[in-house]
Amino acid sequence: MKYFRLIYIIYILLKYRLEEFITFNRQLNVFAFLVSIIFFFRSAKENRGTRLRLALEELGPIFVKFGQMLSTRRDLIPLDIADELAKLQDQVPPFPYKNVEKIITASYGMSPDKIFKTFDQVPTASASVAQVHFATLHDGKDVAVKILRPNIKRVINKDINLLYLIAYMLELTWSDGKRLRPREVVAEFSRHIQCELNLMLDAANCSRLGENFKDKKLLIVPDVYWDFCSEDVMVMERMYGTPISHIETLRKKKIDIKQLARNGVEIFFTQVFRDSFFHADMHPGNIQVADDGRYIAMDFGIMGSLSENDKNYLARNFLAFFKRDYHDVALAHIESGWVPKDTSIDEFENAIRSVCEPIFNKPLKEISFGRLLIRLFQTSRRFNMEIQPQLTMLQKTLLNVEGLGRNLDPDLDLWKTAAPFLKKYMSEQKGIKHILKSLKNELPHWLHLTPQLPRLIHELLEQKKHENAIHQEDIGRLLKTQKNQSRWFKIVITLIGITLLVNLTVLFYFVK
């Protein structure tokens, strides 16, 4: 069956003339010629992006999701194709209620009517991985019940294995295969889809985001009912709101649309720079608005996490961009280690300047942060930058946030909203508070290490003493050893200094 599925996939790709995407190695040009003869009846009316979208839709929901993910990799694929793939809709017919009963019974050991006071048998939403039903608990609370599709894990794993095989074949036969790393793209998709296949992870993401916004001033996150959650079923508070795309309805409810747009940008940058944890699937279907104007978040299967290094990279680059300091942009890439150390800064700076300078001829309110990142990633790839998956997710989310914001308010100035977050973050990285915070975070590790330091220093000195005795016969080696001793002496002094610093930090911590 696996190979029949592979043959069917290849047939669909050829049916839509998708071999035109590939510049074959010389030895496979004959194959391309034969394909053009065999499939002479194929229509070429549609453009290449449309043909790719139609092929993915015909191959089924998993390939639709793959196309949706691919649409975010604008650093890899042409923009016209990315725009066309963004039209893909993850909508499939719902599975029957008898399957819902089986899954819930398998998860809880009892039927839905024993767990819920009421349960809507018709789903309110149905997608390729799961569907959602509304229900009421016996205590009267309204809930939304998310249920994985039957056998979806097995189906997805089979198709992912086939995608890996196709990617491997492309790397062997496509002249651009190694440069564009198709297997890496499939691995990224696999990571995303696997997260969506465990609803306990979905629930944990929801709970964490809710904790980050527990004041509920700008964003409402549904409560999770953990007693009713499993890998295949998730139960959370039912939310009541208006889809953010229904702008006229929002206006009738007297919601300030311009303020709503600004709040959306603020929520996003708060997630990024305050919490290092952001909702990475912020399309209109996952966002509603409460009657009082607060955002309501939904669907937590895809979330992104950022390290301090990631945040420093983003803030430093954005601030440098808007100062047109392209030298600092190039330097940030090299210092972060994401571009090889031997990269020519001047050459890299000029490459960045050539693609970004035209953007900054526009007014600030017309500049797209997301497209700026796309240009940066596209340029950086030419200098062998490994694009980090979390930054790809962030770039996709940023495009979604910008799209939502400017759909609400075409005059939205993202820079004006974002600048305070960027400047505050960068200033916090330089002050004494940041140093003390870092020391406080490292305190448990150093407290564990401090009692061992004298023994470690003694062993270090004994090791060097033994090495010195072995090399005494050779004068040249002795001179080298003396230099090493000097270096090791500095290390020992540094360790002693760190020990004193840790003790002072402990004292500061307990006094505070």
From TrEMBL:
Residues 87-330 form the ABC1 atypical kinase-like domain. Pathway: Cofactor biosynthesis; ubiquinone biosynthesis [regulation]. The keyword tRNA-binding does not apply. It comes from the Bacteria. The chain crosses the membrane at residues 27-44, 488-511. One of its GO terms (biological process) is ubiquinone biosynthetic process. CDD domains: UbiB (cd13972). GO terms for molecular function: ATP binding; kinase activity. Pfam families: ABC1. InterPro entries: ABC1_dom, Kinase-like_dom_sf, UbiB, UbiB_bact, UbiB_kinase. Keywords: ATP-binding, Cell inner membrane, Cell membrane, Kinase, Membrane, Nucleotide-binding, Transferase, Transmembrane, Transmembrane helix, Ubiquinone biosynthesis. Belongs to the protein kinase superfamily. ADCK protein kinase family. This is 2-octaprenylphenol hydroxylase. It comes from Candidatus Methylopumilus planktonicus. The gene is ubiB.
